[in-house]
Specification:
By secondary structure, this protein is mainly beta. The protein has three domains: about 160 residues, no CATH class; about 120 residues, Nuclear Transport Factor 2, Chain: A, CATH 3.10.450; about 270 residues, TolB, C-terminal domain (Neuraminidase), CATH 2.120.10.30. About 10% of the residues lie in helices and about 40% in strands.
């Protein structure tokens, strides 16, 4: 390890921003998301009932459509069952999501009884509170039907709910809950799928907040409320709570921020009246709105301006007004830069090629730098918000976290434990932290994984809850990074799907415009307004929102140059 020196790494992660007056203890570095307008009349409860004279195979398919309606303990689905089966069926537990449901008649049926094999490929599951997790497997079940009162009804079926992916999208809507990180500083997104009958949406979202974060996310977030706190409903226009007697004022402020931004990100218009134990939740605050917590805005535009840099031929340049200019200092002059991360404050961490292996260094643009580590190879470094720390992977296997004490300037580097799924132990070619620092995305042997960052002690981190996303991509993934809205942008070696968007919870994968991209896509980056990729020929850009069939175009000032895009964070 290099000898101790001055301050470059300490400045590299100073990202905290104080909140507006009245809530100065709350920070602003939350994962941003798009707000959508809430319309309580936009979706009414669908009516699905058994159709008279329906053939048994078609009635069985209707039943699976009805299971997408959870209202009144799945009353709609139970109408397709015999009286005895309806009383015995247990729909609780995780909801399996399959690509599509296949129905095949089994031999041995009679005019009054039939058996069917129901099958499908499992793509995911909805757990408690609508938390989605990707899954891969096969669903198979035997369902029996019999004549009841002259109509076919299901007489025997396994417990649980199985849903086609199309029904999930038709009947459920993803929303963002917000919880604070383990230090109570940053809002972390918890994406949930909620049944689309929207007249009860505000109370449904608040109830989910009260139940706490999804199990997978729990290691990265903190608990604000005591066990006895509860949501008591909407009364006279106020969202009311009880059991807040022992909740401190700072925690009340944090809880209010959670509620306000959860409701606002769902398109529910404020201001909101929040009451606890018969009094305003916050002293001297009869109503609360997004302006009271503006620095925590989840709007994509609130992610802040990003400066575009490019890395080509070992040099880093700032790209402004369609003209690249070499940055001052080591990054712009050495010619040996292999990868880099640059913050909005002008500090950086970069990997440099050495005669033998590589060197990880950190510094300030135009200023001094210091060496953090040496290894044969390093992945592109990633900054941990609020912690004066830089993450990277050395030699494809060792996840390292280098942190400099803000009090003493002492530099320490520790290896991060990663609890990978069984059988996964390949080369880590990409590691990127999310803006909140609560999540990490990794590319391991061409497969896409995400994990949760657990703070085990003040200086100890671990990557837990690792799951593979977009398994259908196989080993084609080359590059990945977080988008400002919390989703992922992914580059692959596949000419059919060179660039994709993967949702934060892994629930869906969308192929972006192929346009004039030539695979492989070896680097990706995203600002609130623009997407960037480096393909086999050049660095290209595409508006984050635009035409139906947009064309990727070369970045002005970088035409004909195959460079790597770097966006300041």
């Amino acid at each position: 390890m290099a000898s101790k020196s001055n301050k470059p790494l300490a400045a590299a992660c100073a990202l905290a921003v104080s909140l507006a007056a009245g809530c100065a203890s709350l920070p602003s570095n939350s994962d941003p998301h798009v707000l959508r307008q809430y319309n309580p009349e936009a979706a009414s409860a669908p009516v699905i009932t058994p159709e008279a004279g329906r053939e048994p195979d078609l009635l069985l398919r209707d039943f699976y459509s009805a299971t997408a309606i959870p209202s009144a303990d799945y009353e709609a689905a139970r109408a397709f069952l015999t009286q005895q089966a309806a009383a015995a069926w247990d729909p609780s537990g995780d909801m399996l999501v399959v690509d599509r449901i296949g129905v095949t008649t089994l031999p041995g049926g009679t005019a009054a009884r039939r058996k069917f094999s129901v099958h499908g490929t499992v793509v995911g599951a909805l757990g408690t509170g609508g938390a989605y997790r990707p899954e891969r497997g096969t669903y198979e079940a035997t369902i029996e039907l019999e004549q009841s009162g002259g109509e076919w009804r299901i007489s025997s079926l396994p417990a649980g709910v199985v849903l086609e992916r199309t029904e999930l999208r038709n009947q459920y809507q993803p929303y963002n809950l917000y919880f604070f990180d383990a230090q109570g500083r940053e809002l972390v997104t918890d994406r949930r799928w909620v049944y689309s009958r929207r007249e009860t949406l505000p109370s449904a979202l608040i109830s989910l907040i009260m139940e706490g974060p999804a199990q997978r996310l729990q290691p990265a977030v903190s608990s604000i409320l005591p066990a006895g706190a509860s949501y008591t409903g909407l009364q006279d226009g106020a969202y009311t709570f009880s059991g807040f007697g022992g909740v401190s004022e700072p925690d009340r402020q944090r809880f209010a921020a959670q509620v306000v931004w959860t409701l606002a990100s769902a398109g529910i218009t404020g201001p909101f009246t929040l009451k606890a134990d018969g009094a305003p939740l916050l002293v001297d605050a009869q109503t609360l709105g997004t302006d009271d917590f503006v620095e925590l805005s989840p709007l994509v535009q609130a992610a802040g301006e990003s400066t575009l840099f490019s890395l080509a031929d070992g040099h880093v340049s700032r790209v402004e007004s369609a003209s690249p200019t070499a940055v001052a200092g080591e990054l712009g002059a050495s010619g040996d830069v292999q990868s880099a991360e640059i913050t909005n404050e002008g500090t950086w961490a970069a990997v440099f090629k050495e005669e033998q292996g590589a060197s990880l260094r950190a510094g300030e643009l135009g200023g001094a730098a210091r060496e953090l580590q040496r290894a044969e190879t390093f992945t592109r470094p990633s900054v941990e918000p609020e912690a004066n720390a830089v993450w990277t992977v050395a030699d494809g296997t060792r996840i390292l976290r280098s942190v400099q004490s803000s009090a003493t300037g002492e530099l320490t580097t520790a290896e991060i434990a990663a609890e990978l799924p069984e059988g996964v132990h390949g080369n880590i070619s990409v590691l990127r932290l999310s803006r909140s620092g609560a999540r990490v995305v990794m590319v391991i042997d061409g497969h896409l994984y995400t994990g949760i960052v657990e703070r085990r002690t003040p200086g100890e981190r671990a990557v837990v809850g690792v799951q593979e996303y977009a398994q259908e991509l196989g080993g084609t993934v080359v590059a990945a990074d977080w988008q400002p809205d919390g989703s992922l942008i992914v580059g692959t070696s596949s000419s059919a799907s060179p660039v994709l968007r993967v949702e934060q919870d892994g629930s869906s994968t969308t192929v972006l415009s192929v346009g004039n991209i030539s695979a492989p896509v070896v680097a990706v980056a995203a600002s609130p307004t623009m997407l960037y990729v480096t393909d086999a020929n050049a660095v290209l850009q595409l508006p984050a929102a635009g035409a139906d069939n947009p064309l990727w175009r070369e970045v002005p000032g970088l035409e004909g140059v195959r460079s790597v895009p770097i966006l300041s964070t």
